[in-house]
Each structure stands twice: as structure tokens, then as C-alpha cells.
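Per your request, structure below.
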């Protein structure tokens, strides 16, 4: 018996070549599109250059973003089928918006985490009760661990800071009530112990720990104030402030009714962490001065530990709690920032879902574009099928058209999103300190911030192209040839 004729099976090169041909524009583009493309490209370059080199306000980056969208639109119109160009532009816009927002939310998460750990370390070792006096031996033991970069005892307390001025007799007197007092968190640290912690010097204006002097017979102890706190108190470098600690903070019955403890400090440095809460409510002093005014004895609140690998904090914390007495507790930086990180991740998920709808809308436009393409190409489809192409080949060709449109749109969108993220990072858009915890809009672009929107766009476009590809595979040959 003669063999049945071999059916024409879909081949990847043929499918890709035909799909690419269907995507490309057939006729020459209009001259106006070229002129608009050149003008928008020049405007984009000028706006980006002004953003990177000057601080001329929000106008340059905004103009650059709008002009870049016009340029991308003109490129799509000049090189792609007009119907498909709209869908590709929509996919690119959705990917760009989602990539930019993910970069900003990732920046918030990383910036907040970095700045909080910069002040509190990656691990805190505390003790239940108010008698943590064995801290020197425990701190020395922690420093002997190769995974630990630094271990520093600290003491902190709530206190009232009152700006003071010298009177005519050389004494000190509180200034007017318009300049204080301010209730703040005061933290005592040992400069010799925190010297191995990389982040602390970065938040001090002088980049030095010399301001945290302990005080002696000739000098009052030094204090470093958050720059927002100093502005609220209307004090500057060289001014004096009084630190007032209510006696009731000891938590002991015998101290009730006693007058508050107070000491005079000289403002020797300002703190700028970039976190509004810290800059407006934190003061740093020497550990010995803190112990004297907080407790009246040599004890601490805890030990902050900086690790070589921050991700190892949970494992090391579990080890410490396993071998230390039950009165000790080890808290990781993830636990300290759990509420903030959970809120940011919820916002990130919600915004991703909302902006992801842009890609769904663009995919619906792709369905309309493919339906129009099938209607216009019925003659070509019938001709291919008459030459031996089967329905499976036609299905894969139009499925590839939708997939390629998604790939092109995703690639363009990811590139735009990365460029917009770069402009935001260069511009450092300022945020209101009373509303946001960070003073500028942070940006951090990770691999998943780029791959996530791109993969979502390609998958959505490939999924919605399936029904249209099935319709193209069922085009009657005779009716299609009749349209030729």
C-alpha cells in the first residue's frame, strides 16, 4: 500500500519567521512619525541629562519620561503592524510601571532595613530585669565568634532634653519654653566597642566618634543629637543641653518621689540617618555617662551585635538562646523590623496586583489586534494551508505572534522601567519627613523586579493568544482563497 503523504509539521524556524513577518509593518511609515521620533528622542536625552547633572526640580525627569513614552510609541508605529503596535505599547507601559513601582518598594524595604540595623545591629542580646551587669564577659565572648564583626554594650532610656545657656555669672539656665524640652530616646554606647560597626560613623556629621566623649574635670560629656531634634530644640554644635531623667524610670518603689537626675552635655555632633523617627527623636552619649545618669551603676540594657552575614542572625540567635541562661534573649533584625517589613510587603503585593491589571488590559488589546490580523490575513492563511500547512502550524504561527508581541513589549517595558528607576534614584525625590519614615524616594532594582513583570507579560500574552490561534487554525481554505 502506498504511504500516506507526510503532513507538514510545525517547525520552530518557520513559525518564528512567519510570526515575525506578520508582526512587522507592511508599508513604509509616514514621515511625520520619524520627525516625532527624533524630537522626542532629543527631548528625552536633554531631560535625562538635566536630571543627572542639575537639581532643576521635577520638570526635567517628568519631561524625559513623557518624551520617552512618545518615542517608544513612534518606534512601535514605524516598525510594527498598527493594530499590534497598540498592544505592544500597552504591554511595555504596564511592564515599565510595574518595574518602577517594584524598584521603589524594594528600595524602601532595603533602605529601612539597612538604616535600622545601622543603629541597632543585626542582633540584640538583652536580659530580663534590670541587672545586666555581666555584660563585659558576654561581649568579649561574642567578639571571639568569627561570624561576629562587633559586639557593643549599650544603655538607653527615655529622657527630656532641655536647651540651656550660660548666665552672666557663668552658670546655666534653661532657655525659653519655645525651645524645649523634648522627650527623646537617649542611647549610651562605648566608642571603643562600636568602632568595628560600619554604619554608625556614616550617620554622624563628623564621621567620627570623638563627639561621644565621657567627660572629665575640664569638659562636660558630649552628646550627638538627631538633626531634626536639634532643629526643634534650636541648638547647634557647641551649645549645651540638660538631660533630665525622672527617678521613676528605675522601676523601684524606693525611688518614687525623688527628684529627677540631670546632667549637662555639650552638643558636639548631629545625626542624620535618613529615618525621620530617628533623626527627630534620638540622642547618643558615652556609655559611662549613660550608666551614671540612667542607672547610677555599671549595668547596661543589652549588647548589640553586628554580623558578617546579616542573614545568619536567626541561626546565631537560636544558638545563643540555647546555651545562655533562660533570662537572656536574642532578637534578630528581622524580628525588630517585622511590622515595618510586613506592611511594606503588603503594599508591594497590592500595588503589583493593581498595576498588573495594565498588562491584562494590554493583553485584551492584543486579542483584538490578533482578531483583526486573522481577518486581514485569511487569504495568506488559506494559501499556506493549500500548500500543505496544517491547522497545527497555523495555530503555532499565531500563538507565536502573540508570544513575540509579549516578548517585545516586555523587553521594551523592562528597559523603560529600569531607566525610570535610574532617573528617580538620580533625582532623589524628597519626601515629607512628617509623613514618611525616609526623607527621599529610595530605589533598589533587583533581578526579580525585572524578571517578574516581564514573565507575567509574556505569559499573559501567550495565554490570551491561544483562542485567537485556534480561530486562525480553523479558517476555511476555500473562503480564504476567495478573498485572495
Amino acid at each position: 500500500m502506498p504511504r500516506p503523504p507526510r503532513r507538514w509539521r510545525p517547525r520552530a524556524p518557520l513559525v518564528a519567521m512567519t510570526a515575525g513577518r506578520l508582526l512587522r509593518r507592511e508599508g513604509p511609515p509616514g514621515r511625520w512619525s520619524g520627525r516625532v521620533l527624533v524630537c522626542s528622542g532629543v527631548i528625552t536625552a536633554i531631560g535625562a541629562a538635566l536630571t543627572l547633572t542639575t537639581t532643576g526640580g521635577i520638570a526635567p525627569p517628568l519631561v524625559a519620561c513623557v518624551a520617552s513614552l512618545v518615542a517608544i510609541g513612534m518606534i512601535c508605529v514605524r516598525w510594527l503592524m498598527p493594530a499590534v503596535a497598540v498592544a505592544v505599547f500597552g504591554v511595555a507601559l504596564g511592564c515599565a510601571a510595574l518595574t518602577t513601582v517594584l524598584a521603589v518598594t524594594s528600595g524602601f524595604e532595603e533602605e529601612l532595613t539597612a538604616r535600622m540595623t545601622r543603629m541597632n545591629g543585626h542582633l540584640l542580646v538583652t536580659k530580663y530585669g534590670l541587672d545586666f551587669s555581666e555584660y563585659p564577659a558576654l561581649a568579649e565572648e561574642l567578639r571571639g565568634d568569627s561570624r561576629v564583626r562587633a559586639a557593643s554594650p549599650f544603655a538607653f532610656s527615655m529622657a527630656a532634653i532641655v536647651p540651656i545657656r550660660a548666665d552672666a555669672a557663668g552658670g546655666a539656665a534653661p532657655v525659653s519654653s519655645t525651645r524645649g524640652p523634648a522627650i527623646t530616646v537617649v542611647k549610651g554606647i562605648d566608642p571603643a566597642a562600636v568602632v568595628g560597626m560600619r554604619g554608625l560613623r556614616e550617620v554622624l556629621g563628623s564621621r567620627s566618634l570623638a563627639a561621644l566623649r565621657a567627660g572629665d574635670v575640664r569638659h562636660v560629656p558630649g552628646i550627638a543629637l538627631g538633626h531634626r531634634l536639634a532643629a526643634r530644640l534650636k541648638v547647634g554644635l557647641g551649645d549645651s543641653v540638660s538631660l533630665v531623667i525622672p527617678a521613676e524610670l528605675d522601676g523601684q518603689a524606693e525611688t518614687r518621689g525623688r527628684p529627677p537626675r540631670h546632667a549637662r552635655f555639650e552638643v558636639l555632633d548631629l545625626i542624620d540617618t535618613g529615618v525621620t523617627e530617628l533623626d527627630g527623636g534620638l540622642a547618643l552619649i558615652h556609655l559611662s555617662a549613660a550608666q551614671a545618669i540612667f542607672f547610677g551603676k555599671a549595668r547596661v540594657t543589652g549588647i548589640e551585635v553586628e554580623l558578617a552575614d546579616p542573614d545568619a542572625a536567626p541561626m546565631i540567635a537560636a544558638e545563643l538562646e540555647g546555651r545562655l541562661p533562660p533570662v537572656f534573649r536574642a532578637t534578630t533584625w528581622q524580628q525588630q523590623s517585622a511590622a515595618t517589613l510586613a506592611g511594606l510587603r503588603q503594599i508591594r503585593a497590592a500595588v503589583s496586583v493593581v498595576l498588573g491589571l495594565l498588562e491584562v488590559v494590554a493583553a485584551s488589546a492584543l486579542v483584538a489586534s490578533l482578531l483583526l490580523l486573522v481577518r486581514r490575513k485569511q487569504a495568506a492563511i488559506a494559501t499556506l494551508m493549500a500548500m500543505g500547512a496544517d491547522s497545527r502550524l497555523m495555530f503555532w504561527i499565531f500563538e507565536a505572534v502573540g508570544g513575540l508581541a509579549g516578548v517585545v513589549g516586555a523587553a521594551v517595558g523592562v528597559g523603560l522601567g529600569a531607566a525610570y528607576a535610574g532617573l528617580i534614584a538620580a533625582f532623589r525625590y524628597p519626601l515629607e519627613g512628617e509623613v514618611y519614615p525616609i526623607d527621599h524616594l529610595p530605589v533598589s532594582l533587583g533581578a526579580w523586579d525585572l524578571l517578574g513583570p516581564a514573565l507575567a507579560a509574556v505569559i499573559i500574552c501567550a495565554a490570551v493568544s491561544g483562542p485567537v490561534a485556534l480561530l486562525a487554525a480553523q479558517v476555511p481554505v476555500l473562503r480564504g482563497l476567495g478573498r485572495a
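The chain has a mean pLDDT of 80.

Regards,
D.
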